[in-house]
């Protein structure tokens, strides 16, 4: 895993993620980079959770640790941005837990919005198994298991998800870049406060 940024990185941190008894420790971690973007520092995180089809409980434990890590480092004018391969579809317990608005949040007060909520519904949604029709997945279609999650925007709309889409979902010179499509989101910079007048 890595965080690549065109903007300066002000600080970094790493957190190992847990496993549970009876499950292999795959050495999963979460990374944090505080990015010096226009409008102020942005707390950015990325991770890759366990992939076993029967490891939802492990992923839930990993998400709880990830949420604590995010809460520790989510400082600054921008909401936190959490990205990664969660190996879980949007309705799975571990995704509901990290988002914290369809169930109690993993850390009180930490709510993350799935950027895909802001995508054009007509766009293809699958991010995994895009290149092979015979790979095992969670259904008869490509699964969406890769995410950009963003905290609620501030009052100046800083960090609001403006758009979301897939990328890397076509062959280049006959070769797939990955069996995963990338998720791309555009976030808003701060907007001047509006002055409203009463009638």
UniProtKB/TrEMBL annotation:
Would I find Lyase among this entry's keywords?
no
Pfam families reported for this sequence: Exo_endo_phos (PF03372)
The highest taxon in the source lineage is Bacteria
- What are the leading ranks of the lineage? Bacteria, Bacillati, Actinomycetota, Actinomycetes, Kitasatosporales
Q: Which UniProt keywords apply?
A: Endonuclease, Exonuclease, Hydrolase, Nuclease
| Protein name, UniProt field | Putative endonuclease/exonuclease/phosphatase
Q: Which residue numbers delimit the Endonuclease/exonuclease/phosphatase domain?
A: 1-180
Provide a Gene Ontology MF annotation, just one: endonuclease activity
Q: Which GO terms describe its cellular component?
A: membrane
One of its GO biological process terms is: GPI anchor biosynthetic process
């Amino acid at each position: 895993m890595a965080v690549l940024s065109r903007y300066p990185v002000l600080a970094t941190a790493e957190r190992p993620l847990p496993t549970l008894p009876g499950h292999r420790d795959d050495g999963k971690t979460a990374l944090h980079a505080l990015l010096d973007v226009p409008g102020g520092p942005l707390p950015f995180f990325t991770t890759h959770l366990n992939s076993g089809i029967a490891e939802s409980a492990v992923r839930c434990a990993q998400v709880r640790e990830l949420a604590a890590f995010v809460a520790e480092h989510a400082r600054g004018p921008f909401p936190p941005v959490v990205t990664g391969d969660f190996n879980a579809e949007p309705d799975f317990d571990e995704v509901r837990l990290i988002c914290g608005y369809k169930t109690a949040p993993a850390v009180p007060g930490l709510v993350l919005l799935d950027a895909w909520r802001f995508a054009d519904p007509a766009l293809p949604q699958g991010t995994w198994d895009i290149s092979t029709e015979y790979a095992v997945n969670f259904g008869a279609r490509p699964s969406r298991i890769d995410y950009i999650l963003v905290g609620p925007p501030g009052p100046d709309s800083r960090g609001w998800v403006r758009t979301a889409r897939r990328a890397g979902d076509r062959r280049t010179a006959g070769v797939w870049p990955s069996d995963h499509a990338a998720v791309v989101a555009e976030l808003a910079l701060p907007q001047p406060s509006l002055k409203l007048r009463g009638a």
